[in-house]
TrEMBL record:
Similarity section: Belongs to the peptidase C69 family. Secernin subfamily.
Descriptive protein name: Secernin-3
Upper lineage: Eukaryota, Metazoa, Chordata, Craniata, Vertebrata
């Protein structure tokens, strides 16, 4: 399958808008500035030997009889993905979040592992939510989230298909989920407040036991599990708030070009530059009409304002995406200690992108 150039962009939030034509989902991936992100396709598969367990980034989990075809944008050193889509039009992206609950240092499933597992095992957005929370309950989340660095976090997820979208936010094994109505975005903070459509059965009781909720006031997930003042959440200068404002500015007239424009926005912080950089971006167009294909556009490179979004559509006989596959991906555990020398994981597109940036800079 060939990649044809389309306009530019990138993101760091997960943003979604419901229109008559269906759903849009967009995400920027903020990672360490020197991390390479590859775009890779895995075909559907049947697994006859269920005794053979599946190796994720750090731990093994039970395999399932069948997995769906997926396209993933992922840091090249790990098994999971920052964002991606499957053949049924399910799209998922994750964000790092922190709160009152201490981050587990034990190796378990990374949020990025849960993204890939949800895509491989679910044919609707809500079933993907079920997959993620079931795995979260069984295996937990935890482990180092950066290659050669100490960096751990819990996760929030934006999960969408042609017909609906869900926000799933977690704190350890506890979680809350909100079915999206209209425009919604997530960032590096919990954002579900009192509109909770699904939840961990012991989530409220645990918050009460820890003294985070007095059981007299209406339960507010973000207020209980984080330190955020939800009364002023929408007036803060945070990227979450800035992302919402940009979406609201274009409300009623959002196209995939609009989504790309938002992803390249620097003043809001959505397009990051510095030690943490927007290393890859994705926009998905999910028509409600099942006769129309879902279109997933990936950059596979950093610097959204100078990257090209390239379309991917699930069709029969897809060729390997060789130009965006890292040549040195291996399943060995990265050492979170120094000195640690990262292998050169730059794929061909990434190398060409670097060369183009150097030429542009030298001709200033």
């Amino acid at each position: 399958m060939k990649w044809n150039p389309l306009p530019v962009t990138l993101l760091w939030h997960y943003l979604q808008q419901q229109l008559g034509i269906g759903l849009f989902l967009e995400k920027n991936s903020d990672r360490l500035f020197d991390e390479v992100q590859e775009v890779i396709y895995f075909p559907a598969a049947v697994h006859d030997d269920l005794k053979k367990r599946l190796k994720c980034t750090y731990i093994e989990v039970d395999q399932v009889p069948e997995t769906y075809a997926v396209v993933l944008s992922r840091p090249a050193w790990l098994w999971g993905a920052e964002m991606g889509a499957n053949e049924h039009g399910v799209c998922i992206g994750n964000e790092a979040v922190w709160g009152r609950e201490d981050i587990s240092k034990e190796e378990a499933l990374l949020g990025m592992d849960l993204v890939r597992l949800g895509l491989e095992r679910a044919d609707t957005a809500e079933r993907a939510l079920d997959v993620i929370v079931d795995l979260l309950e069984k295996y937990g989340q935890g482990g180092n989230c950066a290659e050669g660095e100490e960096f751990s976090y819990y996760n929030s997820f934006l999960i969408a298909d042609r017909n609906e979208a869900w926000i799933l936010e977690t704190s350890g094994k506890y979680w809350a989920a909100e079915k999206v109505q209209g425009v919604r975005n997530i960032s590096n903070q919990l954002s579900i407040t009192t509109k909770i459509d699904r939840e961990h059965p012991d989530m409220r009781n645990y918050a009460k036991q820890r003294g985070w909720w007095d059981s007299k006031d209406e339960f507010d997930f973000t207020a209980a599990y984080s330190y955020i003042d939800t009364a002023t959440m929408m007036t803060s200068p945070s990227r979450y708030c800035q992302g919402y404002r940009l979406l609201d500015k274009h409300k009623g007239n959002i196209t995939f070009e609009t989504m790309m424009e938002i992803l390249r926005d620097r003043p809001s912080g959505i397009n990051m530059k510095g030690e943490f950089l927007t290393t890859a971006s994705m926009v998905s167009v999910l028509p409600q009409d099942p006769s129309l294909p879902c279109i997933h556009l990936f950059t596979g490179t950093p610097h959204p304002e100078r990257s090209v979004f390239k379309p991917f559509i699930f069709v029969p006989h897809i060729s390997p995406l060789l130009d965006t596959k890292s040549p040195t991906f291996e399943l060995e555990r990265p050492k979170a200690k120094k000195p640690y020398v990262k292998p050169d994981r730059r794929h061909l597109l990434y190398q060409n992108h670097q060369q183009a940036l150097e030429m542009i800079s030298s001709n200033k």
